[in-house]
Specification:
This protein has 3 helices and 4 strands, in the order αβαβββα. The chain is α+β, with helices and mostly antiparallel strands and 106 residues long.
Length: 106
């Protein structure tokens, strides 16, 4: 039996996947940057989200294949990761965005 969150997650990934990968060997990936306790939503952490929004604005000016879903427990990034002989690799811009989110939470 599938729970509500599993159904919602699968639907979110299916919708994102429908956009199509940026390259032939890329797979959709969800990166959840959450918190152990408390709330990390834009409404409750406005200063943190100012930093995150600045990083997102910089990325949106480039050609990026990603989406951001906001949750009370922290943002979720939907990205395409390259699958190659070295394993799974993420674009530097995605790593920079995750770093910005972690720094904003700190």
């Amino acid at each position: 039996m599938t729970s509500d969150w599993e159904y919602t997650f699968r639907q979110r990934m299916a919708d994102f996947s429908a956009l199509g990968p940026a390259g032939p060997s890329e797979i959709p990936l969800s990166i959840k940057v959450g918190v152990v306790s408390g709330c990390f939503h834009a409404e409750h952490s406005p200063l943190a989200y100012e930093l995150i929004d600045r990083q997102l604005d910089a990325l949106r000016s480039e050609r990026q294949e990603f989406a951001v879903e906001l949750h009370e427990s922290g943002p979720e990034l939907l990205v395409y990761a390259a699958l190659g002989t070295a394993g799974l690799t993420l674009a530097k811009s995605v790593i920079d965005l995750v770093t910005a989110i972690v720094k904003a939470r700190a």
